[in-house]
Every structure is written in structure tokens, then in C-alpha cells.
Amino acid sequence: MPTRPDLIADWRQRLGEASEAPSEPSSRPAWVTRLRARLFRFLLSLYGDGAWRAAETSSQLDPSCDDAADQAVPNRFEGKPAKDPTLIRAALSSVAAARATANVPGAFTAGQGPDAWTIVATHRSGINPYDCVWLLQRMNIAARCVNRRDDVTVEVRAKHLADAQRVIQSNIDGLRIFPTSVVPSHPLLGVQVEKGFQLLGKRFSRWRFEIISLLSLALTVPLAYGWVMIISNVRAVNRFEALTTADLVSEQLWPAWRGFFILALLSIWLRAHWRARRKALPAAN
Q1: Which residues are paired to 160 by β-bridges?
Q2: Which of 204, 205, 119 is nearest to 161 (CA)?
Q3: Which residues contact 106 (CB under 8 A, 6 or more apart)?
Q4: Element (DSSP H or E) covering residue 118
Q5: How many whole angstroms separate alpha carbon 175 and alpha carbon 154?
Q6: Across the strands, what pairs with 118?
Q7: pLDDT by residue (tens digit) across 34-55?
Q8: How far apart are CA 189 and CA 140, in angstroms?
Q9: Which of the following CATH numbers is that of domain 113-175: 3.20.20.70, 1.25.40.10, 3.30.70.1530, 3.40.1190.20?
Q10: Per-residue pLDDT tens digits for 60-92
């Protein structure tokens, strides 16, 4: 730490440097130079001629202060004993009882307490939410379904959470949602019917062409009748009149049946021609 004479001499030197005009231009503004000169004059006016004892320590000034400070420090650092919890609780109860009105729960306590709604099951977890709510309400447990953005949840009161979980676990088989179909261990009726059709196909494979031809000819009658009914309904709507049965048969049914019959004969001939060519290919090879 510099002594008083050295510091005063440094201030005087800096004041002289700030007071002299610079011989060459500098980047420092002129007001900074004037401020430094005024600052050093102020410091010299206060501390230049005074009795300044900054180099002396506190022990040199009054040695008895250190002995008094050492004696004031206790030898044993022990804190006060803790207060009884009953005293603390009694003080808090007395402060709470002094209020004229009871405390009103704020917005941050809306989802807490025994009456708060708590999620007990979700649709994503594989539980049918609607059946679950129906079952819980049947067991006298208040429940509700909440449709959220990406899921459907089942909520109950916090005080009924344990009872609701126990009810759901005891009926979990009826509340499960299976995303894939369950294959039964025993064959269903559809499997037996399919086997029956396969057996009939093997038995009547040689008569397949004749059976298909007869079915094609038999279907011409219902197709013709359906076509006539459609045409008659369209005409009745347009002309606001209905045709009689005789007119329907004479004007529309027989021409329509002849058309469908000709189409059936043409399909039978094409099928027979294709069948003959198919049989002739192996013989040619």
C-alpha cells in the first residue's frame, strides 16, 4: 500500500500532466482532460495538507480493541433449543382463528383434495371408457368420461380412486378392447360352409360349364323384369301416369327378356369357344 507522501506526489504529478497543453493532437476529448485536472485539485485540497493516518492500522491506534474483540467471542457455539411443535401449532391456530372469514381455496388448489377428479382409466390403455363409467356408476362410484384431444379418459373422485381401481381390476376381462380379432379354438359355421362348397366344386367340376350356362339363361328373366320396372318408374315420374300390367308385359317385358336372352346365348357361345381353344392348345403342343 503506498504511503501518504507517495500518493500526494503522484497526485501532483498527474495534475501537472493534465494542466499542461498537449503539444500534439490526441484522441482524448478536451473535457476529459479538464475533468482530470479538477479531480486532482479537489483531492489535493482535501488531503494535501491534512493529518492523514491512512497508513496506520487499527491495532496501532488502539491495541485494546483487539483484546476486547477476542474476549467478546464465546467459546461454545451452541444455539437456542428448538421450540415445541405444539407451541408453534398453537400460534398458527390462533392467527388463523383471528380471521373473520375462512380461507377460500385459490386457483392452484382446484385439482387437489379428496373431491378432485382423477384419471383411473384411458382408452389408450385398452379400456372401454363408456362401459367402465357405466360399471362404476352401477357400483355407486361417481365417474365421468372426458373426451380429450387424443384420448378418452375415465375420471373419478380422488377419495374413490382405490375403490374404482379395485372394481376395474375385478372386471378387466369385460372392459378390455381387443384391437385385433380373436381366432376361436373351435371352427365356426363359416368354415364348415366353405368346406361344403369346396366339396361340391370337386363333385361337379365336370358339369361346371353346363351349370353356369343354365344359370345364365335363368337369370335373364329377373334381369328383364328389373329393367322393365326401372323404365316404368322413370316414365311414370316423367308423365305422371302408371302403366297397367298388360301394357307392361306386352310393351316392355318380352323385348327386354329377348335382349337379355341373346346376351346370355352370346356369352355361352364365347365361353364354349374359349373352352375349345383351351383344350386344343395341349394337343397342338
Answers
A1: none
A2: 119
A3: none
A4: strand 117-122
A5: 12
A6: 156
A7: 888 888 888 888 777 655 555 5
A8: 42
A9: 3.30.70.1530
A10: 545 555 555 455 555 565 667 788 889 898 888
With cell 495538507, the residue in question is: 49
157: how many CB neighbours lie within 10 A of its CB?
A: 19
Residue 156 pairs in a beta bridge with 118, 143
pTM over 0.70: no
The residue among 228 and 138 whose pLDDT is bigger is 138
Q: Count of residues for the chain? A: 285
Cα(147)–Cα(230) distance, integer angstroms: 48
The residue extents of the domains of the chain are 4-57, 113-175, 205-284
SS3 127: strand
Residue 160 gets which letter from DSSP? G
Nearest CA to 135 among 183, 84, 173?
Answer: 173
Rg (CA), the chain: 54
Among 234, 262, 271, 229, residue whose Cα is nearest residue 248: 229
For 151, list phi and psi in degrees, rounded to 5.
-165, 165
Q: How far is Cα 15 from Cα 67, in angstroms, rounded to an integer?
A: 44
* Distance separating alpha carbons of residues 262 and 275, to the nearest angstrom: 20
> What grid cell was written down for 202?
370337386
Neighbour-count burial of 182, counting CB atoms closer than 10 A to its CB (0-12 exposed, 13-18 middle, 19+ buried): exposed
